[in-house]
Specification:
Elements lengths: L6 H11 L7 E2 L4 H4 L7 E6 L4 E5 L5 E2 L4 H12 L2 H5 L15 H5 L10 H14 L3 H13 L5 E2 L1 H9 L2 H12 L7 H12 L1 E3 L1 H7 L19 H14 L5 H7 L4 E3 L4 E6 L3 E6 L2 E2 L6 H14 L5
Antiparallel strand pairs: 1-10, 2-3, 2-9, 4-6, 5-6, 7-8, 8-9
Helix pairs in contact: 1-14, 3-6, 6-9, 6-10, 7-11, 8-10, 12-13
This protein binds 6-diazenyl-5-OXO-L-norleucine (DON).
Length: 308
Amino acid sequence: MAKVLTDALLASILERVRPLTAQGQVADYIPALACVPAEKLGIAISTVDGQHFQAGDAGERFTIQSISKVLSLVLAMGLYEEHEIWQRVGKDPSGQPFNSLLQLELEKGKPRNPFINAGALVVCDMLQSRLSAPRQRMLEVVRQLAGAPDLHYNTLVARSEFDHSDRNAAIAYLMRSFGNFHNDVIPVLKNYFHYCALEMNCVELARCFLFLANQGRAAHLPDGLISAQHTRQINALMVTSGMYQSSGEFAWRVGMPGKSGVGGGIIAIVPHEMSIAVWSPGLDEAGNSLAGTAALEILAREMGRSIF
Ligand code: DON
């Protein structure tokens, strides 16, 4: 029988996956991330009927990294017509690591989807073209979504990413050579790194992404940030591409739209019901949280939830 959601259930799931925190690899290609303690482990849930659950280090902030790619897409969807976005970035899984250059050359500078680095950089380029202050706009939106007016960027992490940005810069310049990048590369990279360096905790993340479980609505949101149709589209992209080359494996094990970040966070959505945020910095080979994925797998099984 499906278990009832409680803080105690979440705490017991964390204890069961805790041994895995020692097996993952904390991201070290961004030096400022390498010093995050691997033993951190947290989970939080927000439900569409207004309940909140949490356990472990759910109140401790970390950089959300690629989870921010969902938010930059939300901003772009509000500024551009659909065809303007999807002629520049695809909607298909890449089957490649998130920072790969290989496919991009073969496919003439059009990234497979908005959740690999290339796709997110195109989206950031689009934001740069239409927003006078893209960093400030992102902060306004996430503070409102998360109900946390003090959210901010970790500027040390953003700086560290910029100091080690060869691969992302190469991706952006390659796209520019194909005409699929319109602004100067450096300022767009800096905005992208700030978005990745946005700090949130699991409670704030779960609350922030509740709109994806609730057809674009959230009690604390003004109408019109995002339509029901756009939230369906984002959930579909999260299922097919949210976990990079492990998206199929994640669908198999967890059965929910998900998006990971190399900070160790994952956000997962049960449509019409809840948003779940987990955090454990140790990653698997695809760059997804090892213990975080295992926690979501147990939670999905014990609550009897899957979109399939
Ligand atoms: O650009 C990067 O490589 C990082 N700032 C973000 C990558 C990331 O989070 C991939 N996700 N699992």
